[in-house]
Each structure stands twice: as C-alpha cells, then as structure tokens.
Amino acid sequence: MPHLKKGAALLAAMSVAGFTAAATIDLRVLETTDIHMHLVDYDYYGDKQSDTVGLSRVATLIKAARSEVTNSVLVDNGDLLQGNPLGDYVAKGRVLRFGETHPAYKAMNLLDYDVGNIGNHEFNYGLDFLMKSLAGANFPYVSANVYVDDGDNNPENDQPYFQPYLIKPTSLVDSDGKTQTVNIGYIGFVPPQIMTWDKDNLTGQVIAKDIIETANKYIPEMKANGADVIIAIPHSGMYNNAYEKGEEHATYHLAKVDGIDAILFGHSHLVFPGNAAFNDYEGVDAEAGTVFGVPAAMPGFWGSHLGVVDLTLEPNGDGWQVAKGTSAVRGITKREDGKTVALVDADPAINQAVSVEHQGTLEYMRRKVGETTADITSFFALVQDDPSIQIVNNAQIWYVENIVRGTSFDGLPILSAAAPFKAGGRGGPDYFTDVPKGDIALKNVSDLYIYPNDLKVVQLTGAQVVEWLERAAGQFNQIDPNSSASQALINESFPTYNFDVIDGIEYKIDVTQPLRYDAEGKVANASAHRIVDVMYDGKAIDPKQTFLVATNNYRAGGGGHFPALDGTTVVIDAPDKNRDVIANYLLTQKTINPSADNNWTFTDFGKATVSFATSPKAKGRESASMSFVNMNDAGYAIFNLK
Q1: Residues 110, 114, 117, 122, Cα dihedral to 10°
Q2: Is the pLDDT of residue 44 over 60?
Q3: Same-domain check for residues 231 and 350
Q4: pTM higher than 0.85
Q5: 600-631: pLDDT as tens digits
Q6: Among 323, 356, 389, which residue terminates a domain?
Q7: Residues 333, 385: one domain?
Q8: Are 292 and 390 in the same domain?
C-alpha cells in the first residue's frame, strides 16, 4: 500500500509546512535620534514651553507604539549629549562629576532602551566627559568604527575603543503564543569626520575608520557568532552619490552590505520614510521606507519623530531570519491650516526626572551679559547683511585683534566669517534668532551662536577668501534675469550654517550665475563667478594679499567642504569657544548697536521677481526693498525682493 504511505507523508509535510508558516514573530524596532539634549519640551532660547521638541514628548509615542505590539526593542542613534543650553550647562556650567548620572540618562533610563549608538556630537566635550556620561546609562552602547590610536601605524592590530557590536539574546513571543529566544545583533557607526570636527579632543587618543569597510568586517562576524537579526544604527545620513572611502553620509551604501536586516539612521536631521527628497534615489522606496529592500527609518531631530520598523521573522534552521519589513515615522506635531498642532502631551515622568538640571539651566541662561539698543533677529539673514551675524563677526574680530598683538601675526588684516545658524530651513518657521532690544542674557548669546565650537584663525590669500565666499554662495538658486516669473532665491538643500558671511571686506553676490561649487565642495562650473566687486580697504582685493580669518573649528577643519579649509591653514588654535568670545565681547561693550554694516549685497536681478520664505514674525519689519506676498502651508511668510 505504497499510495497510503505517500499520502501520509504528504499530510505530514503539509502539517510541518503549516506549523512553520504559523510560527512567525512580529518584532517592532523603535528609534530616537539627534535628541541634542532636548529632553524636556522647552525652548531655552525663547525661554518658553514648546510643543515641537522633547524626548518627553516622543516618550508618549514610544509607549503608544509599544502598547500596539507584543514584541518591541528601542534604540537611540546618538547626538544626544550636546545641542542646547541644558547640554552646555551639564558639561560647562555645573559640570558633571564622576558617579553622577547625566540628566539624559535620568530620562532615558525610564524608557528601557535596549542599546545606544554614539553620534559625532558626543565627542564635543571630550572623551573624559563622554565616558563619565555613558557610565550613567543602564543600557549598552555600540560604535564599531572608532579605534584606539596605538600610534604604530599598523591597522591590523587596531583595537576598538567602544564595544563595536552587541548580540543580545531576546525573549520574543511568536504567533502561536510561545516564547522564543532570538539573537538580535546591534552595530553602530559614527562619521569618520569626527577626527576633523573634534580634532583637539581626539587626536592621539582615537582614530575613526570608514563605515562601509567596518561593516564588511563585522557583519559576517556577527552572523558567525549567532546573530539571527542584525540591526545597523549608523549615525549617518543618506545621499545617493557614488561611494567614496570615508563617507560622512554612508547609509545608502550601507544598505548594500549583505546581512543587514534593518537600518535605524540619523545625523542629517531629515525624516524617512515619507520624504519626497528621496523619491528619485535608485533602490529607495521613499514611501514604503526601504533602501535596496532593507527597511530603514530616520526620525528627524530634537524628538520631533519616532522611528518605527516592523519586522516579520520566520524560522531558519535552529534560528530565525527576517522575512519582510516595513518602516514608518510618527511625529509629535503636524501642520494643520498653516499652524503647528501638538499630537501628544509630554510624559511628566521624563520632565520630572531632569527638573533639577532644567531649573539650573534656566537660572544659568537668564544671567545678563549686556544690552542692545535694537532688536536682533535673523529673519532676513539669508537675503541681506544681518545684525545677528554682524555681532558674531564683530566679536570675533575684536578677539583676534587682542590675541595677535605682539605676535608675528600683528599687522595682518583681520577678517571674520560667521553664518546664520537659526534661519528656518529644517528647523521650521519658528527657528529664527529673535532677541528683543534691552538686556541681553546668556540665553540670547546661545541664540546667536548655538554650537559649542572653538574659535580658530586661518591664514589665507585674497583669492582663497573669494573662493570661500563662492562656496558659501551655494545658498542661492540660479535666477534667470530675463524671466518675470516668480523665482525662489533660497536653495533649501543648502544648510544655512554653511552660508558664511565674511566681514572686513565688501562684496556682491550675482545669483544669475550658476554655482561654482557643487554640494560636495567640488568645482562644478569653473567659469562661474558669483562673488564680484570684492573690495578691501576701499580697493579691489589683492588675490595675493595675506589675511587672517576668524572662524570655528568645524569650518577650519574641513566642515562643509570649503576650499583651502582642511585644517592645514589654521595658524591660531584659540583657547576659547566662539560663544564665550561673544559673551565676553558683550560684557566688555556693555551696550551695543547691532546694526549691520551692509558689507554685502546682491547684484541686480534683471526682470526677475525673486521670493524667499522667512518667519511670520518678519511681517512689518521688512525693508523698503521687500514686500510681503502670503503665508505658505508650512507656516512661512513669503516675501518678494524688489
């Protein structure tokens, strides 16, 4: 009766197949990133509560997302410990002591994180501070591409500075209600540019290697060591440019590394999925949230969103594997009828956990350092010389004039470069400097200069100064002077912190010319010259003349890919931070007139009608060369330049 045996075998096979199909596991991976010390829902610069920021807000989303599923894990992708006055207060004001728990971890320890990754800004206060801080986390950290600098120039024996990856046996409940153990692997990465951005803090102590090469080294090792699921947590953005060793934004290429099952990324402060900026990337489904088939999420910044990746696991021999996955992001606010509407309330437990440090920060930030005779805003910083930048440049020139006296640099002309850090863009229509006339407190200084950068002085020729400005002029779209149609002036993909204004010279910007430099700082149009009529001391600038230019460690060390700025042209490593320079300048001046000196302007636009977006608070403060048009759906005020 062989046919009966065959039938029995078929039934058994069907039974096994049915059992296998049923025994799946749904796993939700949640991500926070780029919190930048926005632990509470508070705007320290405006000294007011905020609906748009805060881990305490995203904590409510975390709890809701967890309640919807049986199995979930939570990761943080770094840039946690620096970014607002609370971070500076803990690091520089009251100073974190050994054995104390950093307020970031007082908050995060309440949320049961499974693992954290280290971002580039974690290094801003030095390795000692970083290690003191991490000691307060009750969850592990991973970072795979930072190694001990052993000084022997032999990469074969380099040792990881941090734990490069973690394989965590995790109890999960399958679709039959049975508890299964799944080995979840986590691996983190940081931009290797930390060695440039935080050179003074890291040189001689650590080295940073390429993200993709590091992934190719460790992912197979994680598989060999029993990882069922591998979750990559790169503190790295995503661009679809051709791969180059040392990529800052490596996520696009990381998704091609075999063995990675999900990517929880960050760094560039964007949102993915659901972002049209990624629509044309080959291999990327910007709606489904996959990159070369790998589910991926990037949840904005400052607690604006929660990243959610849902994976379905199926049996694979004596382990498990990912069968499919989807991703999404959830916001703490939404735009409705031109206004920002809060979607969640803050978790009071998070706010309470850091209440002592929060109150200390408020007292710290409210200290008076000077007085201004007029309002200081950045509403028009991208379209005309602006008082918020002027004050920074005045302070930096004042500082350098003092420190070069009696040195070999005494007598060289001094210029200063500064950019508008708060000028809308990704920060939204409320993200502008707005300091009313009257007393200036420390919170206002932080509003003018939001990063804890160190002041650096570079030595350049006149020709190199002009090329610096050419790169900065990437802030603007090319305008057709023969078209009367409305044309947007601002290139929204260009970060405003790269729009350096250089004081001490006069110049014009011709936006009817194409860009001279592309997004990577490479010459795109060798014959294009947007910077014209450059004058120093009333005469055309001498291309061969030597200048000292005050700037910050980020720019001087290569941040933003500016020509002649790669660390080699630094001649003065100042002992002070740019923000401290501004505060000391204000204390010395006591009362200031913040008027801009109008050292730069645009050339004629021809027949073009040129528009730009800015804060709705700008209405009524515009100059005679501007006219208000309307409010757009994102909450910005639209103006035309005449």
Answers
A1: 20
A2: yes
A3: yes
A4: no
A5: 999 999 999 999 999 999 999 988 889 999 99
A6: 356
A7: no
A8: no
Burial class (CB within 10 angstroms; exposed 0-12, middle 13-18, buried 19+) of 339: exposed
Q: Which residues have a Cβ under 8 Å from the Cβ of 193 and sit 6 or more positions away?
A: 120, 208, 246, 248, 558, 559
Question: Are residues 452 and 342 part of one domain?
Answer: no
Main-chain dihedrals φ then ψ at residue 480, nearest 5 degrees: -85, 110
Structure tokens at 56: 């305490």
Average pLDDT over residues 228-241: 96
CA dist 291 and 256 (Å) reads: 8
Q: Residue 577: which pLDDT band, with cuts at 50, 70 and 90?
A: confident
Cβ-based neighbour number of residue 94 at 10 Å? 14
**Is the CB of residue 338 less than 8 Å from the CB of residue 633?**
yes
CATH at 618: 3.90.780.10
Cα 419 to Cα 451: distance, rounded to the nearest angstrom: 12
Residue pair 376/448 in contact (Cβ under 8 Å)? The answer is yes
Rounded to a whole number, what is the largest CA-CA distance in the chain? 108
Q: Report CA 504 to chain centroid distance, whole Å.
A: 30
Same domain for 466 and 321:
no
pLDDT (tens digit per residue) in 188-226: 999 999 997 888 889 999 999 999 999 999 999 999 999
**CA neighbor of 450 nearest in space, from 92, 44, 118:** 44
What amino acid occupies position 542? D
In b/e form, how buried is each residue of 348-362, taking b as 16+ CB within 10 angstroms? eebbebbeebbebbb
Hey, CA dihedral for 272, 274, 279, 284, is it positive or negative?
A: positive
Quick one: tokens of 441?
């407190």
Strand blocks (E) in 413-474: 414-418, 434-435, 438-441, 454-461
How far apart (Å, rounded) are the C-alpha atoms in residues 406 and 265?
49
What is the span of the domain harbouring residue 335?
A: 23-356
Number of domains in the chain: 2
CA distances from 200 to 117, 123, 339 (A): 22, 10, 43
Q: Do 299 and 406 share a domain, yes or no? A: no
What is the Cα–Cα distance from 437 to 149, expressed in whole angstroms? 50
CA atoms within 13 A on the CB side of 328: 8
What is the C-alpha separation between 306 and 294, in angstroms, rounded? Answer: 18
**3-class DSSP assignment, residue 233:** strand
Residue 16 placed within a domain: no
Cα dist from 10 to 23, 315, 427, whole Å: 20, 21, 61
Based on the fold, state whether residues 352 and 371 are members of the same structural domain. no
